[in-house]
């Protein structure tokens, strides 16, 4: 973990309890939570960019980066479900996709292969983070229920698409030996 991209990924994990704590501080404005979430989102952008540019891509980074993304996004979504700002079905869909892809990654590791985040996974994460930003900075009351539902359906479709793509691209891993 001794390189900057890996440190940035781990810092994203460390922001999760900060976000959770902020949700439970009475009167804490959602935009404050949004700033902390934004810091996490920026580390997601920077860690990959720096790792590729400086040749610092590591197996640890390939592992921790998607885990950090999942922790940041899913933890925030669960808190937003609790606050009544995100439909629970959407968070369950995202969680199911993440668990399925993680299961695929575990099988791959058992076969000596590391599956890094692909472009569709990056688009998925960006879409999810964008939706969360809208909710945290602009608040639930700015949007009508249909707008939130439409956004959740759109991001849900991107989430499903990226999960299916991981399985199609790595179907050889699931074949019996």
Question: How would you summarize this macromolecular structure in one to three sentences?
Answer:
This protein has one domain: Four Helix Bundle (Hemerythrin (Met), subunit A) (Up-down Bundle), CATH 1.20.120. It is 80% helix and 0% strand. The longest helix is centred in the N-terminal third of the chain and has 25 residues.
Question: Could you walk me through the main structural features you see in this protein, from its secondary elements to its overall organization?
Answer:
With 177 residues, the protein is mostly helical. It has a single domain (4-174), classed as CDP-alcohol phosphotransferase transmembrane (TM) domain (Four Helix Bundle (Hemerythrin (Met), subunit A)). It contains seven helices and no strands. Helix 3 (59-82) runs parallel beside helix 5 and helix 5 (119-138) packs antiparallel against helix 6 (145-169). The protein is globular, with a radius of gyration of 17 Å. The model has no long low-confidence stretch (mean pLDDT 87).
């Amino acid at each position: 973990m001794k390189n900057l991209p890996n440190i940035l990924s781990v810092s994203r994990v460390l922001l999760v309890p900060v976000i959770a704590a902020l949700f439970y501080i009475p009167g804490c404005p959602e935009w404050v939570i949004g700033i902390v979430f934004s810091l996490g989102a920026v580390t997601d952008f920077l860690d990959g960019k720096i790792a590729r540019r400086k040749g610092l891509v590591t197996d640890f980074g390939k592992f921790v980066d998607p885990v950090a993304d999942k922790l940041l996004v899913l933890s925030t979504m669960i808190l937003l479900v609790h606050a009544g700002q995100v439909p629970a079905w959407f968070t369950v869909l995202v969680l199911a996709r993440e668990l399925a892809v993680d299961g695929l990654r575990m099988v791959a590791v058992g076969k000596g292969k590391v599956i890094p985040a692909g472009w569709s996974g990056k688009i998925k994460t960006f879409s999810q983070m964008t939706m969360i930003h809208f909710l945290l900075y602009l608040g639930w009351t700015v949007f009508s229920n249909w707008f939130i539902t439409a956004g959740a359906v759109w991001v849900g479709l991107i989430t499903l698409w990226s999960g299916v793509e991981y399985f199609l691209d790595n179907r050889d891993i699931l074949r019996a030996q």
